[in-house]
Design a protein that fits this description.
The chain is α/β, with parallel strands linked by helices. It folds into two domains: 150 residues, Glycogen Phosphorylase B (Rossmann fold, 3-Layer(aba) Sandwich), CATH 3.40.50.2000; 136 residues, 3-Layer(aba) Sandwich (Rossmann fold), CATH 3.40.50.2000. It is built from twelve helices and twelve strands. The longest helix is centred in the N-terminal third of the chain and has 14 residues.
């Protein structure tokens, strides 16, 4: 059996789809799993040992350069690559027009949500088989339920993302135990106040933990540098690839992060994680897994430093 999973973006959504690979591999150990994903997130499914062939797309980049010959050459290469294999099932767990369109390029019966369940009802028109999955389930469970319905198996086991961090040497890490603070996110209204991060970092240092602040773009790195300067001994991490970030998160004593994909990656790696929500409700898309984790806050809320510290005090070790 050969199956193509289509979940292209965003980072958190791709991470939420990892348990599907685990479930399918448990039910069909001999099945070959491929994955179609945005090029910038391709490192995530590569962390799962049951996933073989990765088929990258660059929809985000292509949209910005539709009139360039190079863009259409890459689109043609994607169409050729996705049709090189005949699939027993092509499963679109994203439920968007773009993901359904990409999935329809593959050779094989296409399955997805019905029009009542899909995030964009138009996507259902592309599918050969449709399944109604309750919309009030967490995103992880919706993905799992769709895969189970399409392949006719029960969802019985606890959620398992099935990944392990690679063994990458990070020689600049603090010598002792450390916490990772994920202060960067895609929207300003999702940020936690810098003064709160400083107070939290100072409290963690007082407890003997090192503090590491990863960041991506220049604006995020500038914020991380400001925070690190105000927290004794804290480190603003250099830019890291996703695989190295996974290694960093897996080695942490704890992670505290805002509403961002890396916070979900920490949970997937079973690192104790506190997620902070200020502009969105975490009920259906918050951190979710088998390890120690907690969602704090919600739309229009700002979790207090004391509340975060209280949760961290309950973490063993």
């Amino acid at each position: 059996m050969r199956i193509l999973l289509v979940k292209t973006s965003s980072l958190g959504d791709v991470i939420h789809n990892l348990p599907v690979a685990t479930d399918i591999h448990r039910q069909f150990p001999q099945a070959k799993l491929d994955w179609c994903v945005e090029e910038s997130f391709a490192a995530v499914p590569r962390l799962h040992p049951a996933v073989g062939r990765i088929i990258p797309v660059a929809v985000r980049r292509w949209r910005k350069a539709l009139f360039k010959a190079e863009t259409w050459r890459e689109i043609g290469e994607f169409r050729q690559r996705v049709r090189e294999v005949d699939y027993d099932l092509v499963l679109d767990t994203q439920g968007l027009f773009k993901s359904a369109l990409l999935a329809s390029r593959a050779n094989g019966p296409l399955a997805g949500y019905d029009s009542e369940s899909a995030r964009e009802p138009l996507a259902a028109r592309f599918y050969d088989r449709h399944f109604r999955i309750a919309r009030d389930l967490h995103a992880v469970e919706r993905n799992r339920m769709l895969a189970a319905a399409a392949l006719d198996y029960p969802v019985a086991d606890a959620v398992d993302y099935g990944i392990q961090a690679p063994a990458i040497a990070i020689d600049w890490l603090p010598a002792g135990p450390y916490a990772v603070l994920l202060s960067a996110t895609s929207r300003d209204d999702k940020l936690w106040p810098e003064a709160h991060w400083v107070a939290l970092g100072q409290a963690l240092r007082a407890q003997g933990l090192g503090v590491v602040l990863p960041a991506g773009n220049p604006q995020e790195r500038a914020r991380a540098a400001r925070l690190a300067a105000a927290i004794p001994g804290a480190l603003a991490a250099p830019p890291l690839r996703i695989d190295a970030l996974a290694t960093l998160l897996a080695g942490a004593r704890a992670v505290v992060g805002v509403d961002t994909g890396l916070t979900h990656l920490a949970v997937a790696l079973k690192t104790p994680t506190i997620a902070l929500y200020t502009a969105t409700e975490p009920g259906l898309t918050g951190v979710y897994g088998a390890g120690i984790h907690r969602n704090l806050g919600g739309k229009g809320q700002c979790p207090a430093v004391a509340a975060v510290l209280a949760e961290l005090m309950a973490v063993p070790g």
